[in-house]
């Protein structure tokens, strides 16, 4: 037997798949464990060899970055092995994600909880950026929550290195509601500030318990943003009218954030407004955000162990999850690399949508993967 | 967003300044009934937020239990709550209590005009619970450090919870009041001492109030969203009926009946999702108990132990750099406007230039510590 | 004030914990760093193992047939790999791929042959696959069709068939730190030196240094030394004065012990490697090796050969047996035990088996 094959078999034996917890068109997720320790893990099996251009880009990105990043607030890739032509990623098992928590109406958030989640998100993101890596798909359902309350950034299927000078990047990244205006204007040269905008949207969503900027199409997204934050002027954002896909979408006045976030403290609103600055170069970066007064003011961020989490999530059998197999919320530590490629039955068999309210919003409109 | 902006503020409950002066909330529409107090300086109280404002509960279904006047007849109807937690409208209050204390028309407890407060929560028991808890918190302000062990502290907490329960549910009121009085006398000194710790307590209270307001806001948002969805569904359903009538060969009556049935199913599915948020007070209590066990440490911005060679280089504002000519020229300004930062690429190059510079190369046949998969040579 | 306190705490935390340098968290450091002796050993033992296997296969096919075969030795294998390494820049120039792609593909190629031998997998196809894979891992993807149509006599299966094997051999560790980026960084940082006027660092010094970095790619340097060390050695070859000034500056910042004490011998070795081995191999010599390779290739890896077909059939049979056995087990688990609904355990067991079965199906 080849050395490579032999090493692979040894790896494969370390892990046991217990049950399937989700399936998509090109990835299957299992709950499993480490054979020697019984430590719970999630095993994401990516079907390879069915794409005309070979190994899929999102699989490559995910493996490439998770192999390098080791941080408390980034999901840990424990091992990689192959079975036949399948790529298996062994990931730490995580109970739930922030989207589930936001939507769980039985949970009450204290301001200190929101502060703790924000700090953990920013720490994970700062580490990505410190490693010159853009995540490009931050949203509540990519922020997974461990049983000890730690938040972990997951789904690196759209991640990439910071671009070298003059190199173009695709603007078809980041789920629409969390996508910054420069990408909506078709900008091909951007920076870590794109992830920061997403963080701002998540921050707002944690306070509102509902998505802050839920545009219905790319064009509507811009309008939604401008309605909320006012149409930018040349002074707010020099040069934005020169961006490739710039179109005027109407003049909207800037309404104070205070009007919507009536309960938020001054520090909170200040930080929020600095995440949502139009000019990307003036947007706060992750490190400065972590040093913002908001985090030092009372109340202290909640200890992770005290953060609200959905009740009895892990013990729920799969069938009860909205009556369909849904990798994104089934609770394993991973989601399929490209959720848009997954079967997500959003309605029950008779065509009636029985899911809770907030989930009625369209989650199927994911960005095109590039 | 369009939904959010166009829905009037009245569903949310109006924001009323202390003293009852109406604020023209940003979302108010002209058709929105305005809260206007007839005796504007009289009623204060209710649950205030940090800026001293009171968010008042307000519903289109309001009706005064005393005179039966409702919002349909009197758009300016404003209901207030008595200290015995009964609602009545301002004109009844004026009528009954202007001449002095008088019995409550519902439970006969003697009331004064000044003791009416605006209603904050739809559910008056929540209103009452908050008032009771606030009162009890003032009397029973002992802390963990005032007890010799956790057990006696727990006993104390249990007693407090017991008293609170009694007051909320009107159980053994005279005995309970006596217990409170006894406690006050026994612990006068300690209570006084704990007043000095008031600052922190106030902070906690502020938090709680913030939370309460958030909850309310949340509820309103949810309501608005639901309304919007309902409206959309109605419209789609109507459109569908028209479409089906156009295309279907079935009788018009059947098509309409089928669509109606579907709409019914939708609305019943929805009704199960709305009546949550009930036991928030309980949840809060659980969280409060928890926070005495695990303390929240102050924020530490970065907690990892990675070293990024920061001390080995200092990045400059500008470099003479052949690789970033394109960025420097950028005549259209599109790279700048898009937020591209050549500094980030420079930073990466600089880090790469110093990373591992002092690393001693491996020598000999010792396996490197990090490598896990040794090359297997047997076959 | 709270901020001050937390800042203090952070400083304390910093001084208490030993910080790990980021480079040492990379897979490059953890999995692909060798001593020259280790490299030698890995290659000889891989070679010996391959020779043993192929000899057996020959004998099984026809006893006595392996006696006259002149198998390649580890050095000859290396020579062939090196030839195909030199093809990468040519292809990259043709496609106008960024330097990142070129350097990454070369790293992949070298790493692949630390896990495999050329007698199993010919470097021509591995090179094409490594390059195609590198375009994807560095985010410069092109379609397979435009890739193969621009390379004569190449089909898409030449590229794709090995993609999984290459990825597997790389341990799915795709990120690579490169010396050319380190050189760019040094070049920028030279501008922070207080006493270096612009005319002391003319463009042609950089141009010479980058040539040495590119030459280092033909060698084992990146498997032994860090990118920054290779970049600095390349600069030393172009301008010893500049290189020394810069290194001195870093030495001051580094404190503890003078950097030059450990760095100087390292730089000397890298310079030696670049000068001695940083050039394409002699084509005639390689041609001879390639001719002999045709005779000693592992027949199991040559599609169409008797041994290849036999191996395929055996594998197929094994998989089939396994699948049948599992299907049988599952069936039995469903019916045995007397309980028509199956015990709890049975259900779990069944799910597990089904999951494994599924695993084998594709």
UniProtKB/TrEMBL annotation, chain A:
Catalytic residues at 137
Sorted alphabetically, the Gene Ontology BP terms of this entry are: positive regulation of transcription elongation by RNA polymerase II
Q: Which CDD domains match?
A: STKc_CDK7
Q: Which GO terms describe its cellular component?
A: cytoplasm; transcription factor TFIIK complex
Keyword ATP-binding attributed: yes
- Its source organism is Suillus subaureus
Judging by the UniProt lineage, the source's domain of life is: Eukaryota
Which spans of this chain does the record mark as coiled coil? none
Q: Where does ATP bind?
A: 21-29, 44-45
Question: What is the official name of this protein in its record?
Answer: [RNA-polymerase]-subunit kinase
Task: List the GO molecular function terms.
Answer: ATP binding; cyclin-dependent protein serine/threonine kinase activity; RNA polymerase II CTD heptapeptide repeat kinase activity
UniProtKB/TrEMBL annotation, chain B:
Region span, Disordered? 23-47
Give coiled-coil spans as residue ranges. Answer: 188-240
Provide the Gene Ontology terms for cellular component: transcription factor TFIIK complex
Q: Which GO terms describe its molecular function?
A: cyclin-dependent protein serine/threonine kinase activator activity; kinase activity; zinc ion binding
Pfam families from the entry?
MAT1, zf-C3HC4_5
| GO-annotated biological processes | nucleotide-excision repair; regulation of transcription by RNA polymerase II
**Which coarse location class applies to the principal site listed for this UniProt protein?**
nucleus
Q: Which keywords, in A-to-Z order, does the entry hold?
A: Coiled coil, Kinase, Metal-binding, Nucleus, Transferase, Zinc, Zinc-finger
Q: Where is the RING-type domain?
A: 64-108
UniProt lists compositionally biased (Low complexity) regions at 30-41
- Tell me where in or outside the cell this protein is found: Nucleus
The UniProt entry, under NCBIfam families, shows: cdk7 (TIGR00570)
Indicate what this protein is called per its UniProt record. RNA polymerase II transcription factor B subunit 3
- Source organism per UniProt: Suillus subaureus
From TrEMBL, chain C:
Report any one BP term from Gene Ontology: regulation of transcription by RNA polymerase II
Ranges annotated as biased composition (Basic and acidic residues): 313-334
Q: Does the keyword Oxidoreductase apply?
A: no
Looking at the keywords, is Methyltransferase present? Answer: no
Q: Tell me which SUPFAM superfamilies the record gives.
A: Cyclin-like
Q: Write out the GO MF terms.
A: cyclin-dependent protein serine/threonine kinase regulator activity
Q: Which domain of life is it from?
A: Eukaryota
Write out the entry's keywords from A to Z. Answer: Cyclin
The similarity annotation says:
Belongs to the cyclin family.
Q: What is this protein called?
A: Cyclin-like protein
User: Which organism does this sequence originate in?
Assistant: Suillus subaureus
């Amino acid at each position: 037997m080849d050395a490579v094959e032999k090493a692979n078999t040894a790896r494969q034996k370390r892990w046991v798949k217990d049950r399937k917890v989700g399936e998509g068109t090109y990835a299957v997720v299992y709950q499993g464990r480490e054979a020697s320790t019984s430590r719970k893990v999630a095993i994401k099996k990516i079907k390879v060899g069915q794409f005309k251009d070979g190994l899929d880009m999102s699989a490559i990105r995910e493996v490439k970055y998770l192999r390098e990043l080791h941080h408390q607030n980034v999901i840990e890739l424990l091992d990689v092995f192959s079975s036949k032509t399948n790529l298996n990623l062994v990931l730490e098992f995580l109970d739930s994600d922030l989207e589930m928590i936001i939507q769980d109406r039985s949970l009450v958030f204290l301001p200190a909880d929101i502060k703790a989640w924000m700090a953990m998100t920013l720490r994970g993101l700062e580490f990505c950026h410190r490693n010159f890596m853009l995540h490009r798909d931050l949203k509540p359902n990519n922020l997974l929550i461990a049983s000890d309350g730690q938040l972990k950034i997951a789904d690196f299927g759209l991640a990439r290195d910071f671009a070298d000078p003059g190199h173009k990047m695709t603007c078809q990244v980041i789920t629409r509601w969390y996508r910054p205006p420069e990408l909506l204007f078709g900008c091909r040269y951007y920076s870590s500030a794109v992830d920061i905008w997403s963080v701002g949207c998540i921050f707002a969503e944690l306070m509102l318990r509902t998505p802050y900027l839920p545009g219905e199409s790319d064009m509507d997204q811009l309008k939604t943003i401008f309605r909320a934050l006012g149409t930018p002027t040349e002074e707010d954002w020099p040069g934005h009218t020169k961006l490739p896909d710039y179109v005027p979408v109407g003049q909207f006045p800037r309404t104070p954030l205070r009007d919507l976030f009536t309960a938020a403290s001054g520090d909170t609103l200040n930080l929020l407004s600095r995440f949502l600055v139009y000019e990307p170069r003036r947007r706060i970066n992750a490190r400065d955000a972590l040093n913002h007064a908001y985090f030092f003011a009372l109340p202290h961020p909640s200890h992770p162990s005290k953060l609200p989490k959905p009740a009895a999530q892990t013990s729920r059998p799969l069938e009860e999850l909205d009556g369909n197999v849904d990798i994104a919320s089934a609770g394993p530590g991973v989601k399929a690399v490209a959720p848009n490629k997954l079967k997500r039955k959003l309605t029950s068999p008779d065509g009636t949508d029985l899911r809770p309210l907030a989930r009625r919003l369209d989650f199927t409109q994911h960005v095109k993967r590039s | 967003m369009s939904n959010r902006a166009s829905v009037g503020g009245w569903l949310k409950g109006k924001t009323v300044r202390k003293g009852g002066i109406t604020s023209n909330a940003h979302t108010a529409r002209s058709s929105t009934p305005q809260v206007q107090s007839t005796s504007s300086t009289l009623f204060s109280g209710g649950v205030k937020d940090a800026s001293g404002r009171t968010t008042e509960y307000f519903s289109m279904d309001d009706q005064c239990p005393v005179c039966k006047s409702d919002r349909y007849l009197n758009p300016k109807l404003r209901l207030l709550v008595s200290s015995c937690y009964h609602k009545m409208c301002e004109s009844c209050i004026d009528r009954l209590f202007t001449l002095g204390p008088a019995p409550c028309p519902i439970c006969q407890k003697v009331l004064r005009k000044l003791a009416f407060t605006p209603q904050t929560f739809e559910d008056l028991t929540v209103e009452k619970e908050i008032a009771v808890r606030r009162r009890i918190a003032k009397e029973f302000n002992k802390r963990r450090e005032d007890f010799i062990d956790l057990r006696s502290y727990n006993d104390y907490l249990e007693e407090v919870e017991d008293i609170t329960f009694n007051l909320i549910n009107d159980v053994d009121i005279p005995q309970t009041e006596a217990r409170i009085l006894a406690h006050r006398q026994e612990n006068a000194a300690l209570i006084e001492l704990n007043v000095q710790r008031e600052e922190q307590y106030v902070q906690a209270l502020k938090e709680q109030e913030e939370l309460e307001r958030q909850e309310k806001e949340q509820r309103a948002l949810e309501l608005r969203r639901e309304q919007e969805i309902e409206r959309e569904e109605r419209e789609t359903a109507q459109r569908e009926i028209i479409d089906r009538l156009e295309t279907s060969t079935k009788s018009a009556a059947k098509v309409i009946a089928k669509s109606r049935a579907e709409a019914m199913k939708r609305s019943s599915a929805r009704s199960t999702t709305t009546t949550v948020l009930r036991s928030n007070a309980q949840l809060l209590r659980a969280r409060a108990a928890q926070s005495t066990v695990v303390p929240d440490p102050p924020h530490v911005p970065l907690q990892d132990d990675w070293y990024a060679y920061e001390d080995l280089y200092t990045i400059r504002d500008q470099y003479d750099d052949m690789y970033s000519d394109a960025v420097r020229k950028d005549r259209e300004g599109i790279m700048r406007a898009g937020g591209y930062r050549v500094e980030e690429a420079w930073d990466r190059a600089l880090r790469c230039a110093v990373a591992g510079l002092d690393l001693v190369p491996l020598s000999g046949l010792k396996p490197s510590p990090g490598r896990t998969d040794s090359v297997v040579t047997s076959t | 004030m709270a901020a001050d306190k937390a800042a203090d705490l952070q400083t304390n935390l910093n001084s208490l914990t030993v910080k790990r340098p980021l480079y040492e968290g990379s897979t490059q450091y953890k999995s692909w760093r060798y001593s020259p002796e280790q490299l030698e050993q890995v290659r000889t033992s891989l070679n010996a193992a391959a020779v043993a296997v192929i000899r057996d296969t020959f004998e099984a096919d026809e006893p006595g047939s392996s006696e006259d075969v002149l198998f390649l030795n580890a050095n000859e294998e290396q020579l062939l790999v090196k030839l195909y390494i030199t093809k990468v820049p040519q292809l990259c120039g043709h496609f106008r791929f960024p330097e990142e792609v070129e350097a990454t593909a070369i790293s992949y190629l070298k790493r692949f042959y630390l896990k495999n031998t050329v007698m199993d997998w010919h470097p021509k196809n591995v090179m094409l696959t490594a390059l195609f894979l590198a375009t994807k891992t560095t985010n410069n993807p092109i379609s397979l069709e435009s890739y193969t149509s621009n390379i004569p006599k190449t089909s898409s299966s030449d590229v794709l068939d090995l993609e999984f094997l290459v990825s597997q051999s790389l341990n799915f560790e795709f990120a690579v730190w490169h010396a050319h980026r380190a050189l760019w960084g040094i070049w920028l940082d030279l501008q922070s030196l207080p006493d270096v006027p612009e005319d002391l660092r003319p463009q042609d010094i950089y141009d010479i240094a980058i040539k040495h970095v590119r030459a280092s790619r033909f060698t084992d340097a990146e498997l032994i030394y860090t990118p920054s060390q290779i970049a600095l050695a390349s600069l030393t070859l172009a301008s010893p004065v500049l290189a020394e000034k810069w290194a001195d500056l870093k030495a001051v910042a580094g404190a503890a012990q003078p950097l030059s004490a450990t760095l100087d011998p390292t730089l000397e070795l890298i310079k030696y490697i670049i000068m001695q081995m940083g050039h394409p191999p002699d084509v005639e010599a390689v041609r001879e090796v390639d001719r002999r390779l045709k005779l000693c290739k592992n027949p199991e890896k040559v599609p169409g050969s008797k041994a290849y077909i036999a191996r395929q059939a055996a594998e197929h049979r094994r998989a089939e047996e396994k699948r049948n056995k599992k299907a049988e087990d599952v069936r039995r688990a469903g019916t045995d035990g007397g309980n028509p609904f199956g015990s709890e355990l049975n259900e779990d067991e069944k799910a597990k088996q089904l999951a494994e079965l599924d695993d084998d199906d594709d």
